[in-house]
Amino acid sequence: MFIEVLKSKIHRVTVTEADLDYIGSITIDSILMDSAGLIENERVDIYNITNGERFSTYVIRGEAGSGVIGINGAAAHKARIGDLLIIASYATMDYEEAKQWHPTVIFPKDNHIQ
Description:
Strand order of the largest sheet: 2-6-3-5-4-7-1-8
Oligomer: single chain
Largest sheet: 8 strands, mixed
Order of helices and strands: EEEHEEEEHE
């Protein structure tokens, strides 16, 4: 049996950009991406702490050290500049492996790793 488990989470980052005219995705500072074990084009779920919205999209790499969290395309209707987000990714694995799994969870301060 295979199950889906939390792979990684970036907890409480602030939206710095919202661009309705972009083709879609979330732009994440590459340092945050690497710290959370995310790769470009990976699917993520976004949980908006500010307004309760939830949506899925894919990751694009942002400039290292910029602190960028950019919501792009139609998703910009679901998150505005200044909103607080949780960004989560998941992995599918064997049930026994999943019982031993420990996700990567990071808690940035002002959208930067301390």
